[in-house]
Design a protein that fits this description.
Family: Belongs to the lysine N(6)-hydroxylase/L-ornithine N(5)-oxygenase family.
Pathway: Siderophore biosynthesis
Oligomer: single chain
CATH class of the largest domain: Alpha Beta
Keywords: FAD, Flavoprotein, Monooxygenase, NADP, Oxidoreductase
Helix content: 25-40%
Number of helices: 15
Distance between the termini: 34 Å
Strand content: 15-25%
Number of domains: 2
Organism: Roseateles chitinivorans
Shape: globular
GO biological process, one term: intracellular iron ion homeostasis
Length: 435
Amino acid sequence: MHLHDLIGIGFGPSNIALAIALEEGREGRPQQRPLDALFVERQPGFVWHKNMLLDQAHMQISFLKDLATLRNPSSRFTFLNYLHEKDRLQDFINLKTFFPSRHEFNDYLAWAAAQFEDRCAYGEDVFEVLPEPRAGEVRLLRVRSRDAAGAVRERLTRHLVVGVGGMPRVPAEFKAFKDDPRVFHSSNYLEAIARHGEARRIAVVGAGQSAAEIFMDLHGRPQRPQVDLVMRARSIKPSDDSPFVNEIFNADFTDFVFSRSGSEREELLNEYWHTNYAAPDLALIQQIFEVFYRQRVSGEPRHRFLRRHEVAGVQAGEHGLRLTLRDLNHERTITQDYDAIVLATGYERDRHRSLLAPLAPYLGDWEVDRHYRLRGQPNFHPSVFLQGACELTHGLSDTLLSVTAIRSGEIRGALHGATGLDHATGRQESSRQAA
């Protein structure tokens, strides 16, 4: 069986950025053996949040925080070079914005991913990672995946990087309805809502960017459904993107967070929580406010903003789905029937635990070092890196694009040390030592 130096699980932005960093780490060193890296992606081809590519949606983060710029501004994989190759650079400049449409950024990511087609196995879902013990030592891992036809493929690797993204968070009240097509998560929005073109009344549960975008998308649909925006919060709060607050997404702030105690990290996460969670763009909030204001002017209350309401129960009936909502303002309970319910309730970031469960005896408390590497037992030699699952130790930027470029360089540096390859790791990597 062919032995890889590295297998990456998932080929989203984080692992694309790592593929770029590994590629650029070899530039100018043709005599050095390249790292044998393969990425395994369950989707049949690259697409990024395909069910939230809404027509009016824009990025909430500057295009300069792309796959490469902050690590290597001269990289050919920057967003600016993408625009140049697509012959749109001058026109983009004339837009006078740092925030491209989500459609365009998805196209940029697909453009970058396409340059690594020979290093990605698409259409395979990794379901298990097994240790390969020899004489009490583990030096290799066996990665098992299944393709669309059900065929199982096994590969051996010295090291592993897990970049599987988040899994939809479904509130407990809705777990019994996971197979009901009338209840769906925002991650499946466009595909699911296409099956509900005749829905007259829809509930959107959530208070973040996705909930706000979906509300406005439903508002603009020709079927003119009635939409209830349901949230526990008193109001929709905007994300704080002011300059000093935005410094928490700088790469050096990761060092600061990692160096703090557990209680200090928790305080930092709580203090800045609304920079990333339940915090839509201010312009989007203003659009929603205008919708409700125009309703008051016209006297036609099509939509409702059910703030300070929480879901107390869900029932399926002949008239659709009945939500029991607890009105926290007036301490009363109300019920309402819906044709569809959209859960804009965020994501869980712990899928790596089930995926790596067979390795648990070697991984202790699932702690990571500064280079995003799980701390293993002395007899466990593979490096296992986590991308996008280290928020508690590395800060709020961990699940975002903000540090993706630099993180890929840090992981590259740690990989080269682990594999014994003599590659220069660049300024960012050499300035940071693994904890």
